[in-house]
């Protein structure tokens, strides 16, 4: 093995926007036979837009968005940003006792009332409230869902839709044509995950997965004998990135995702996973 060839490979990667943390990583990338993509921010742009609001109380849509936006002020989640952007109100109400639950949602107090903003599963866990029959239809339309609730009552639901990255489909296709299995992992709901997976031609996906569940999914694939690459961008992907054989992060991802990664994609483009594998193989073939 010539260290020079590896150094050249790492350098070529850098010039192409593939930052490789060390020589061993470059070697490992060529051995990947299963790639697990996070959905939000990795296969999609994470620029969700509010597309619909369902009211389950006497409040107006504007009031639901304004309350949710006030509570989301302390969150950096893409859904939080979208809700804040959609809210008509300019000076949000002040929030006490704010708490963030990664992969679930947030809670806080406004005027002495405790509120929860997050996935229906999060609401169920913290309040035992379940969606009404009307809400169930709304929840199954394939959007990301954020519910607003107190301990006693669900106030409303906000549906958000994200855009799939242009090159994601090509990336998936190229990996699959190369005999590499492609998986998708998401904290988002089953319907929304299914819609994205179908559009991208991804057969295997896991929805409603919490951050530690993402790591468990990677461990399970490793135990099946696969050499697993995790590609992610969020705080919620850090546990999965930590256990993967190769951890790849989008450069615009959260600090913890970038720190947990072995390889960083400057262009935030899943297609560069394919390029990284090609670079590794080309480099290693020069060594033997
Ligand atoms: P992904 O795995 O696709 O990146 P997340 O794990 O970040 O998704 O989020 C999963 C779900 O949890 C979201 O669809 C949403 O319902 C809920 N959620 C997470 N964070 C927030 C937040 N800050 N505000 C509202 N909902 C949230
Ligand atoms: Mg993400």
From TrEMBL:
Superkingdom classification of source: Bacteria
Subcellular location field: Cell membrane; Endomembrane system
Family: Belongs to the cation transport ATPase (P-type) (TC 3.A.3) family. Type IB subfamily.
Function: Probably involved in copper export.
Stated name of the protein: Copper-transporting ATPase
Residues of the full protein shown: 381 to 668 of 719
């Amino acid at each position: 093995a010539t260290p020079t060839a590896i150094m050249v490979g790492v350098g070529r990667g850098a010039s192409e926007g593939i930052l490789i943390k060390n020589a061993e990583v470059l070697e490992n990338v060529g051995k990947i036979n299963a790639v697990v993509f996070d959905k939000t921010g990795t296969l999609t742009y994470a620029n969700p837009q509010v597309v619909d609001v369902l009211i389950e109380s006497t409040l107006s849509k504007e009031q639901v968005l304004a309350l949710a936006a006030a509570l989301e002020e302390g969150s950096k989640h893409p859904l939080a940003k979208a809700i804040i952007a959609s809210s008509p109100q300019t000076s949000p109400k002040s929030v006490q006792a704010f708490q963030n639950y990664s992969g679930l949602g947030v809670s806080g107090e406004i005027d002495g009332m405790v509120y929860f903003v997050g996935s229906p599963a999060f609401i169920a866990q913290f309040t035992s409230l379940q969606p009404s029959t009307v809400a169930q239809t709304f929840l199954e339309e394939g959007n990301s869902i954020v519910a607003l609730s107190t301990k006693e009552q669900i106030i409303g639901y906000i549906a958000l839709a994200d855009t799939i990255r242009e090159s994601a489909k090509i990336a998936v296709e190229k990996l699959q044509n190369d005999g590499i299995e492609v998986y998708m992992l998401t904290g988002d709901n089953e319907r929304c995950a299914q819609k994205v997976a179908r559009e991208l031609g991804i057969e295997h996906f896991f929805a409603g997965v919490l951050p530690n569940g993402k790591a468990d999914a990677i461990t399970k694939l490793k135990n099946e004998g696969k050499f697993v690459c995790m590609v992610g961008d969020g705080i919620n992907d850090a546990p999965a990135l930590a256990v993967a054989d190769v951890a790849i992060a989008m450069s615009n991802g959260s600090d913890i995702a970038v720190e947990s990664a072995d390889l960083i994609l400057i262009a935030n483009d899943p297609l560069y996973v394919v390029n990284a594998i090609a670079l590794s193989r080309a480099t290693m073939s020069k060594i033997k």
